[in-house]
Amino acid sequence: MKMTVDFEECLKDSPRFRAALEEVEGDVAELELKLDKLVKLCIAMIDTGKAFCVANKQFMNGIRDLAQYSSNDAVVETSLTKFSDSLQEMINFHTILFDQTQRSIKAQLQNFVKEDLRKFKDAKKQFEKVSEEKENALVKNAQVQRNKQHEVEEATNILTATRKCFRHIALDYVLQINVLQSKRRSEILKSMLSFMYAHLAFFHQGYDLFSELGPYMKDLGAQLDRLVVDAAKEKREMEQKHSTIQQKDFSSDDSKLEYNVDAANGIVMEGYLFKRASNAFKTWNRRWFSIQNNQLVYQKKFKDNPTVVVEDLRLCTVKHCEDIERRFCFEVVSPTKSCMLQADSEKLRQAWIKAVQTSIATAYREKGDESEKLDKKSSPSTGSLDSGNESKDKSLKGESALQRVQCIPGNASCCDCGLADPRWASINLGITLCIECSGIHRSLGVHFSKVRSLTLDTWEPELLKLMCELGNDVINRVYEAKVEKMGIKKPQPGQRQEKETYIKAKYVERKFVDKYSISSSPPEQEKRIVSKSCEEKRLSISKLGPGDQVRVPPPSSVKSNDSGIQQISDDGRESLPSTVSANSLYETEGERQDSSVFLDSKHLNPGLQLYRASYEKNLPKMAEALAHGADVNWANSEENKATPLIQAVLGGSLVTCEFLLQNGANVNQRDVQGRGPLHHATVLGHTGQVCLFLKRGANQHATDEEGKDPLTIAVEAANADIVTLLRLARMNEEMRESEGLYGQPGDETYQDIFRDFSQMASNNPEKLNRFQQDSQKF
Question: Where is the composition biased (Polar residues) (predicted)?
Fold first, then answer.
């Protein structure tokens, strides 16, 4: 209802004017309450709508996930994807609707209440104030006495001024009232009309969207009717097949249900067996066994890689076991171990024993023609244990290792007996072995020989390079140096007893090593050479801090020698890393030559020979020093008690470090300054070595005499790669401790990252040298 106040009545200030004001003021107060309520309801509606959009979006994402899960069903995937896209459009339309509602109702009406109604209230306050002042002036003017002329004039002047002010403010107040009454209608109708148009646009968009989707939904409905009919038909067929199978009698031959034969995939037999563990408790576990590719393997779960029980059935026997309490047991015995198994029935036991015996006989028949008919790349001994991609990848890795290692001189035949095509290796000796000799090496213990398969195991790149640095010829020149002089003949293939005696004498007793005279300390002349350079080396190493670089002398000042030390040639081509230890670079040329002569001396202490050869990256000399009895953890008291492993770090060779670690080097042994191999590798920025030491259990919490651990040094040197490796290793260690996973390698992400760094350090070391290269630019 429109309320209008007359300006003429305003000037009279009549009771009619006052009554009109009272009615208008009450109406405006009621209007303000209604508008405030409407704005609050609009805000609640918008918040609820936004929550609905969020829930609707989550529901739509669930439909998309279901569509991705149904990727093997084109009809379901296409339909769900199309529906989720349409729902996403509707969510967008809803969002636009709520935005327009907020602008039309909430913002517009709130602005009307805050602006126009606020002005009305302010005008009302001024009007009430001046009205009161006018009343006071009238009362004072009426009360003044006639005989007091001065007071009469003062009262008259005040009343005149007050009336004038009242008329101005009253007229402004009436104007504000009339404007408000006129504007309220347009503001309310304008906001509501905008709100309704927003709804109209929303429903039009939804209608257009589903009009386009309608034909597809109709076709899908017809297709769904056919699917329902087909599903009912398939159900009847399955019920009939179920009934047919259920009526069969398996009581007479139920053993066939317990094992399977898949000749097409090379599986002679497979099924469940109980296996007795080799631990102290001798527990029995049920596993899925199979005979394939002349091997006996088992799995706990289908996705697990098969565990090889017997690598080659030609070297094993099978027999009944009646001397234990359990029934239906049989034993598979190989040259290195035995495996106790239990079947579920006597028929199954006989079937398994027969299958093993048949496989042994078949393997012997095929033995003669195997090397001639089959190419090494597709040899059964390197074939995959199943048809999965993961096992195929593993086989390819093993075949690659076999080819690379057998290309080394002498590696095409067994190092100890000469049998052709060896497929086993001793990783700490760097030699290849036949399967029979590998079993004998295993019996020596890992402190003498660590055996690994060239075809069944996955080879780390640094370990593969180690094998390629040595080889049978190199090792035999050391360990069989006196075989001809002593008139001893090497054992032939098949002579197992002779092999055991020969291998033990060769590697454990080292009877055939040319044990020349070894002095406990160098001669005086050589000692002076060592002590002269040692002081400078100690100074240079002790001053070498995080990120410090030692520059290579100009090419003209460094020459290569005959001792195998890699230096810089006169033509300027760099064969030594740009950042190396101060051990050699702070020596004069004459001292370096004397030192090399000293290395070649036949009177060299084995520990010192290993120490020097480790820095020179000379693996044959290192193997020779170990054969002569060198302590792999020998500490050089003349050079801060540095070890051969620390020298290998300073020399910058990843393979040298791996060789020492495989031969028992202590990865945490520290020098006088409290720095271990990990400290030195971090200081020099050797990322590949840091990765190797962390994989081999280096303690990254150890601090040097300055109280710095490797992570602190890497952070100060701003070496991002090493900081990343150290932090990942520390995080993985904390995670394993919190979850109680002591002794386990860590999660797959951590292993993948370290595997990538290992591959890069061995195959693309230039990518890890960017820190040193960037440092040299400045």
Answer: 379-388, 557-569
Characterize 271-289 residue by residue with b for buried, 16 or more Cβ atoms within 10 angstroms of its Cβ, and e for exposed: bebbbbeeeeeeebeebbb
Indicate the residue among 449, 481, 508 that finishes a domain: 508
Distance between CA atoms of residues 342 and 25, nearest Å: 100
Indicate which CATH number applies to the domain containing 343: 2.30.29.30
Amino acid at 473: D
Strand 431-433 to strand 267-276: parallel, antiparallel, or no bridges (unpaired)?
unpaired
Domain count, the chain: 4
Q: Do 538 and 588 reside in the same domain of the chain?
A: yes
CATH for 132: 1.20.1270.60
pLDDT score at 113: 82
Question: Which residues 6+ apart lie within 8 Å of 414 measured at CB?
Answer: 420, 422, 432, 433, 434, 437, 493
Q: Shortest CA distance to 444 belongs to which of 513, 499, 514?
A: 499
Same domain, 637 and 734: yes
Q: Is a pLDDT exceeding 90 seen at residue 90?
A: yes
pLDDT at 146: 82
CA atoms within 13 A on the CB side of 328: 14
Task: Tell me whether strands 338-342 and 284-292 are parallel, antiparallel or unpaired.
Answer: unpaired
Single-letter code of the amino acid located at 513: V
Residue 77, judged by CB atoms within 10 A of its CB (0-12, 13-18, 19+), counts as middle
Question: What is the per-residue pLDDT across 716-736, written as a single tens digit (0 to 9) for each?
Answer: 888 878 888 888 888 777 776
Banded model confidence at residue 329, pLDDT cuts 50, 70, 90: very high
Instruction: Supply the pLDDT for residue 541.
Output: 43
Same domain (yes/no): 401, 492: yes
Domain match, 652 and 737 both: yes
What pLDDT shows up at residue 79?
Answer: 92
In a domain, 247, yes or no: no
CB atoms within 10 A of CB 15: 9
For the chain, helix (H) and strand (E) counts, in that order, are 26, 11
Q: d(Cα 711, Cα 303) in Å, to the nearest integer?
A: 38
Q: Residue 128 pLDDT more than 70?
A: yes
Domain containing residue 766? 524-777
Strand partners, 284: 276
In a domain, 243, yes or no: no
For the question of whether the overall pTM of this predicted structure is more than 0.85, the answer is no
pLDDT at 395 exceeding the cut of 70 = no
Do 565 and 633 lie in one domain? The reply is yes
3-class DSSP state of 424? strand
Kindly state whether residues 330 and 434 are assigned to the same domain. no
CB count, 10 Å around CB of 166? 20
Which of 250-254, 306-310, 671-675 shows the lowest mean pLDDT across its residues? 250-254
3-state secondary structure 395-408: HHHHHHHHHHHHCC
> Measured between alpha carbons, how far is 628 from 632 in angstroms, rounded to an integer?
11
What is the side-by-side strand order in the sheet with 451-453?
431-433, 424-426, 451-453
At residue 513's C-alpha, the angle toward residues 507 and 518, to 5°, is 120
Residue 399, domain CATH: 1.10.220.150
| Domain presence at residue 373 | no
Q: Is the pLDDT of residue 94 over 90?
A: yes
Contacts 24+ apart (CB under 8 A), 283-289: 284/326, 284/342, 289/341
Nearest-angstrom CA–CA distance, 331 and 274:
12
Residues 364 and 386 in one domain: no
Same domain, 320 and 389: no
Which string of b and e fits 493-514 if b means at least 16 CB within 10 Å? beebeebbebbeebbeeebbbe
Burial class (CB in 10 A: 0-12, 13-18, 19+), 744: exposed
